[in-house]
Design a protein that fits this description.
Blueprint lengths: L1 E7 L3 H14 L2 E7 L2 H17 L8 E4 L8 H11 L4 H4 L1 E6 L4 H7 L5 E6 L4 H11 L1
Parallel strand pairs: 1-2, 1-3, 3-4, 4-5
C-alpha cells in the first residue's frame, strides 16, 4: 500500500470515483485532492515548507493529474512544478496524467516532463489501479 496519493481534477464526480476506487483496491493509506493546478502548487509549496522543518515529511508517491482544468490546467501546473524544482521531490513523487483527451499529441507532450511516468484515459477503474499496484508497490 502506498502511503499517500494526490489527485488533481476539477470534476467532483471524478474525484469521488477516484477516492472510491483507491479505497476499494487498498492502493493508498491517504488520498489528497485539489480542484486545479493552482491548488496543487499550493499543496506542494506547503509540503516543501514543512519539509524544511521536518525531513520526515513525505510527498505523495503518485499524483494523478488532469490536463483540462480551469484556473490552472495540467500543462501550466507541470511547467510551474518543474520551474520550482522542489528539493528531492523528483525522486519521490511521480505523476500519472489521467485525462479524457484523445489527442495523441497530448500523450507525446507529457514525455517531455521527467516526472510524468504514465498517461491513462478517464475514467479510472479498478483494473487500472490493480495494474498500477503491480508497478508501484
Amino acid at each position: 500500500m502506498i502511503d499517500s496519493i494526490f489527485c488533481v481534477d476539477d470534476d467532483p464526480i471524478t474525484l469521488m470515483l477516484f477516492k472510491k476506487v483507491i479505497e476499494r483496491t487498498e492502493f493508498s493509506k491517504e488520498i489528497h485532492t485539489a480542484n486545479n493546478g493552482e491548488e496543487a502548487i499550493q499543496y506542494f509549496d506547503e509540503l516543501a515548507k514543512k519539509r524544511k522543518v521536518n525531513l520526515n515529511i513525505s510527498y505523495p508517491k503518485l499524483t494523478f493529474l488532469d490536463l483540462n482544468m480551469p484556473i490552472m490546467n495540467g500543462w501550466e501546473f507541470l511547467e510551474i512544478y518543474a520551474q520550482k524544482g522542489y528539493p528531492n521531490l523528483f525522486n519521490e513523487s511521480k505523476f500519472i496524467v489521467l485525462s479524457s483527451t484523445i489527442d495523441p499529441q497530448d500523450v507525446n507532450k507529457t514525455k517531455i516532463y521527467s516526472v510524468v511516468v504514465d498517461f491513462l484515459s478517464k475514467p479510472i477503474s479498478i483494473e487500472m489501479i490493480k495494474n498500477l499496484k503491480e508497478t508501484y508497490i
